[in-house]
Amino acid sequence: MVVVAVTRPAVVTGWLDVASSTSVLTLVAAAVGSAAAIVALVTGRLSGDPRPSWFGAALLLYGVVVLPLSALVVQGQPAGVSRLAVLSMLAVGMCILIAALRPPARLGAWGGWALFVVAMALGGVVALQEETPFSTVLATSPLPSILIQAGWSAVAVLFLFDGYRRQSRVRSRLGLGLLVIAVSQLYRAVVPSEPVTGLVYPSLRILGMAVVLSALLSMALRAVTRLQDEYDRLQETLGDATRLLERAAGQAAERDHELRNGLAGLAGAAYLLSHTDGDDRTDQLREAVLSELGRLRVMLESPVLATGGPAEEPDPLVDERDAALLDLGPAFAPVTPAPLAANGHVHGVGPVLHQLVDLRADQQGITLRVDDGLPAVAAPESVTRQVVTNLLANCARHAPGASVTVRGRDADVPGFVAVEVRDTGPGLPGGQDTMVIRRGVHDESAGGSGLGLHISARLAHEHGGDLVLHTAHDPLGCLAVLTLPVAH
Questions:
Q1: Strand bridging mode 434-435 / 477-485
Q2: Domains of the chain, with CATH numbers?
Q3: CA distance 174 to 155
Q4: Sign of the dihedral through C-alpha 287, 293, 299, 301
Q5: DSSP secondary structure string, 212-281?
Q6: What pLDDT does residue 305 have?
Q7: Measured between alpha carbons, how far is 336 from 295 in angstroms, rounded to an integer?
Q8: How far apart are CA 101 and CA 172, in angstroms?
Q9: Are strands 404-410 and 366-370 parallel, antiparallel or unpaired?
């Protein structure tokens, strides 16, 4: 009402050049509409919602194309085909606005811009047509313009209703701005003589564009605020994860330290055993204990990176003084075989299997069979020890009380040695015939973390071998087969 009162002819006559002021105000409205279109596009990108992008395409068509043409071209040729071109583009813009309420999912955020190109092409085709009596009558008749502007008003009412239904003040403000723009256009079409002496419709159009721009700026601000909140939550989550990792690293360091102390005590006990007389059984146990301690010492002194390769820099969690406690001298150090060009290590699996079985003979009923003349394998002794130790530990955990058979033989594939560990337990979980070994996969009812088998399979693969698990029959049980390549 204020705009209508201030811009009525009785007020502006004699103060302003109404003809030129109308064009200037139209171009100002076009500038505001273009800014609103850019804000709508940015809002759509920030929020991931395609609706602002479609709305921005309609605003850009109206602000950058339709309004300048209305001010600079149609005003000079009100009865030409140029007016029909503008009306045709307005009709397409109305369709874009309707689709902006619920854009088709297949078209995504860029569907409105595709229709923008269609509107430009349609307007260009219409503008290139020659003047005909029919086009002159159609251009001079107010009916097409009234119908299109009434359609825009209906779309604005739909936006208002959508905002009310969603209980969104921003969307309601968007519909209100569109309604003011539509009313200004409808006012121009219904009262064609008034714009000649007044500035009502261009002023109302600027007001409507300003309301639309303010609504879109509010939407953009909300999108930015939501992104900032999400970023803050991610930072908080990252901070929590960092603190958990630091706590886990501290606990790992403490456990690592205590493990070293415990191993140092075992090493001292083994050292005392080595200086006492005993029977052959005691000597075998002593050698097995020393070999196992040597394997653990190598693991503690040689940290491994996540990629599986040896660490190039010292591990800050490795205390050399603790590791030195496990050094019993060359007489009790693990035997280092002569290096080979292939992978640097070779060993016979028979002696290793004998020592591992001797360590557990009193705890598990284990039967050992090693074929005569079994060739050496091209892998570190620690690989066989670690893998077989994990397999025997799995037998004790998943098949307690079951008999276990360990066998070393030539593999079915020439050039490989196979180590079998078989129990008479329930077999693989779920009745599987073969289990794919993956990190963390384990039987929750039996405990464990699933890391042992994963590490064992990785070690076998790194040295050219393999580790597979099967369900055995007659009798039922689990059969694990480790294969390693023969040393040449």
A1: unpaired
A2: 2-233 (1.20.1070), 354-485 (3.30.565.10)
A3: 11
A4: negative
A5: HHHHHHHHHHHHHHHHHHHHHHHHHHHHHHHHHHHHHHHHHHHHHHHHHHHHHHHHHHHHHHHTS---HH
A6: 39
A7: 11
A8: 13
A9: parallel
Residue with tokens 């602002």: 52
Q: How far is CA 410 from CA 387, 423, 459, in A?
A: 18, 20, 20
Is 159:171 a contact under the CB 8 Å cutoff?
yes
Could you identify the residue written with the tokens 């009100």? 78
Q: What does pLDDT average to in each consecutive run of 10 residues of the chain (488 residues)?
A: 49 54 80 90 88 90 83 59 84 89 85 91 87 76 79 85 84 87 74 54 85 91 91 91 84 67 63 64 70 68 45 43 42 40 72 84 79 92 88 86 92 94 87 74 54 85 92 90 92
Q: Is 466:483 a contact under the CB 8 Å cutoff?
A: yes
pLDDT at position 73: 60
Distance between CA atoms of residues 402 and 421, nearest Å = 12
Q: What's the pTM value of the predicted model, to 2 decimals?
A: 0.51
Q: Find tokens 């003084």 and name the residue.
A: 321
- Separation of alpha carbons 177 and 104, rounded Å: 24
DSSP lists the bridge partners of residue 366 as 404
Token couple for 40: 């709508």
Q: Using CA of residue 71, residue 77, residue 81, residue 84, what is the dihedral sign?
A: positive
Q: Within 10 Å of residue 52's Cβ, how many Cβ atoms?
A: 27
Q: How far is CA 71 from the centre of its chain?
A: 50
> What is the rounded distance in angstroms from the CA atom of residue 223 to the CA atom of residue 173?
17
How many beta carbons lie within 10 A of that of residue 232, not counting itself? 10
pLDDT of the residue at 119: 92
How far is Cα 214 from Cα 175, in angstroms, rounded to an integer?
A: 12
- One-character DSSP codes across 435-453: E---TT---GGG---SHHH
At 85 the three-state DSSP class reads helix
Q: Tell me, what's the pLDDT at 71? A: 66
Are the beta carbons of 52 and 216 closer than 8 angstroms? Answer: yes
